[in-house]
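Why show two proteins at once? Because comparison is the fastest way to build intuition. When a single record is shown, students tend to memorize it. When two are placed side by side, the eye starts asking what differs. So, the first record is below.
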Amino acid sequence: MGLDFAFAAFRQRISYAALISGDSDLCPAIEAAKNEGVITRLIHGPKGSFHNQLWSNVDERREITTEVFKKLRLENKKGNR
């Protein structure tokens, strides 16, 4: 996944990427993508569920919470009417 992410950045196929992960193995790919101008966002669980280096390397962060899921469910219900 990290290689696909980095290749997409090198080929200028992406300008923004949201990652759902906690694994520091993606840090080199994130750094490479950022060097290509890609804005990176980490979608993560509660503190302790992600590596600190991953947290530090991304541009934006958003925690997945119960409230986020509730909001997504409400938006989905409204869109299906």
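Second record. Ask yourself what differs from the first in the token line.
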Amino acid sequence: MSVPDQMVGAVLVYDGECPFCKAYVRMLKLREHVALQLIDARSGGASVDTTVAAGFDLDEGMVLRIGERYFHGDECIHVLAMLSTSTGTLNRMNAAIFKSRTASRLIYPILRFFRNLTLKIMGRQPLQLRG
């Protein structure tokens, strides 16, 4: 995906009860031309409904929507890395790792496994929002 030069609106639907997801979206700093709206999937709402209706399983990964285009799971974090700034150590690490499409594909399933394990240990239920 090429990074646009003009202002772009984006919506990121994530699990607000997942400590990793919450920390990730808090630390993420995107380029100035990206207006990112964060949506906690557990809060529901139109963006969550639209994402699920488009066929995405939110227990399998976050979903980023830019315009009419959706990016799910490993593709989502790859695109976010492409749109991120180099401000801060965590953003630089995120970009260094996930700007690689291959690294995103290989690492994301491991991250999802630990997310699911952590939620189970914490006694939190899966989202169970599937398209």
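One difference worth noting in the second protein: Residues 101-121 form the longest helix (21 residues).
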